[in-house]
């Protein structure tokens, strides 16, 4: 369906007619997803995780949209991302999840960013900086409850609680992170929630945040004061195995460079890995793994079901390996003369969702989103 020009708010990248593909990002859907998560989490506050360039969809347009929807607390992974976000948003609270790298405390203060302190060493460095620079800005303290990635151990957090360290470090948020919240029945969820409750008791009065996207769907016991959704904002299903409650936000179309005929027994693409089982028509389109269309979504004789594409309303399959800049689609079942050189075929939309693309590529929607290429014509619509 063509996009009404009045709904386009921003474009970037090459002109659509010259680009190998057109990536359309539906900002209204991102806002609607935030509002839906916000309602589900209420009375807890709903923040937003916009790390990795807003999960690949563009930090500035995504954050601007979320701010307009009512979001006031943002999480990024790295200091540079926080600095970039701060240039466009002078008011929101911005937490940096990867924490404090040695010697960077002054940069946090300069941009009014809040480190998520993930070890005793980071807590001590932040306290020393705050004292020497007379900085009053806040920070989060991340305590591990079972992920074993970042965070103080429970014992360390308990020991610091006795020394009133949270006040000296300006900690305004107690945080932990689920390891397996997308699997609601996994026993680790209950264990993490129990540990986090105990942890809160050691820090009475401190705001607390535990839930990512899927964690929000574990129910009110997971919500605490602030939830931190990322991937669900961008349309991925936070409840695998159940209907996706989120709206799709991404549409990817790629340009047909040429259509060629192959005879039965011919192979298509690198590795000669896919053999035509009948006289076939193959559409070669200008998107490849360098555009984030992962090579693992290709098809071979052993595994015929690679990624799907929609060509003039008909579902087709990728044929053969995905190249760096191109991929091939078996369009034999399309009407005669369809598609034509220059047409767009659809690789991701409401029907071919990011979770399905991920599944065919043997990965997760997070990786599909954050891999979306930089060579597409990008169209932001409201
Ligand atoms: C990335 C991240 C999130 C967001 O997770 P989603 O599963 O994308 O909702 C929340 N908290 C932390 C600590 C993270 O690293």
Beta-strand percentage? 15-25%
Mean pLDDT: 97
Shape: elongated
Report Rg.
Answer: 24 Å
User: Main sheet, how many strands, which sense, barrel?
Assistant: 9 strands, mixed
Class computed from helices, strands and strand pairing: alpha/beta
Number of strands: 20
Count of helix runs: 12
Q: State the share of residues found in helices, binned by percent.
A: 25-40%
Describe what this molecule looks like in 3D.
With 382 residues, the protein is an alpha/beta fold. It has 12 helices and 20 strands. Helix content is 28%, strand content 23%. The strands form 4 sheets. Strands 1, 2, 12, 15, 16, 17, 18, 19 and 20 form a 9-stranded mixed beta sheet that branches. A 7-stranded parallel beta sheet has the order 4-5-6-7-8-9-10. Strands 3-11 form a two-stranded parallel ribbon. A hairpin with a 2-residue loop joins strand 16 (308-311) and strand 17 (314-318). The longest helix has 16 residues, at 187-202. The relative contact order is 0.15.
Question: How does the SSE layout of this entry go?
Answer:
Elements: E1 8-12, E2 21-26, H1 27-41, E3 45-46, E4 48-49, H2 51-55, H3 59-69, E5 73-76, H4 79-88, E6 93-96, H5 105-110, E7 114-117, H6 120-133, E8 139-142, H7 154-162, H8 165-168, E9 171-175, H9 187-202, E10 208-209, H10 213-216, E11 226-227, E12 250-262, E13 267-268, E14 274-275, E15 280-285, E16 308-311, E17 314-318, E18 327-330, E19 344-348, H11 354-360, H12 365-371, E20 377-381
Parallel strand pairs: 2-20, 3-11, 4-5, 5-6, 6-7, 7-8, 8-9, 9-10
Antiparallel strand pairs: 1-20, 2-12, 12-15, 12-19, 13-14, 15-18, 16-17, 17-18
The protein binds pyridoxal-5'-phosphate.
